[in-house]
Amino acid sequence: HVQLVESGGGSVQAGGSLRLSCVVSGFTIRLRRMGWFRQAPGQGREGIAGFHSQGRTRYTDAVKGRFAVSKDNTKNTVYLQVNSLKSEDTALYYCTFGVWGQGTQVTVS
User: Fold this and answer.
1) Which residues lie closer than 8 Å to 105 by C-beta, 6 or more apart?
2) What whole-number distance in Å separates Cα of residue 36 and Cα of residue 38?
3) Residue 54: its pLDDT value, please?
4) Rounded CA gap, 59 and 42, in Å?
5) Strand, coil or helix: 66
6) Could you give the residue ranges of the DSSP H alpha helices within 1-109?
7) CA angle, corner 15, sides to 42 and 96, nearest 5?
8) pLDDT tens readout for residues 63-104
9) What is the DSSP letter of 58?
10) I need a surface site. Which of 15, 31, 54, 107 has the fewest CB within 10 A?
11) Virtual CA dihedral for 72, 58, 82, 101, nearest 10 degrees?
């Protein structure tokens, strides 16, 4: 049964940090391409970060230098460390490996 479960979101003040997790079951994440996306209220889904299949990372300019992806293959989990949060980072954050999780909400005030 394939399932992605995101967690770690919350309400923080501007400048704060969170670590988002995406626990994967049903397949191994090792050497798989993946992405972190977000969707702000009234806007479309935006790709912000992720891993290429060989492990290289990628970031959109809006988050480069503030967000960092990592993963723990032994836990079949990927992470998104979000630092120096801004109000415009408020969104529902998703991980995807072609299938999608339910998202975790980040609200920055």
Assistant:
1) 9, 10, 91, 92, 93
2) 7
3) 84
4) 22
5) coil
6) none
7) 50
8) 999 999 999 999 999 999 999 999 999 999 999 999 999 999
9) E
10) 54
11) -60
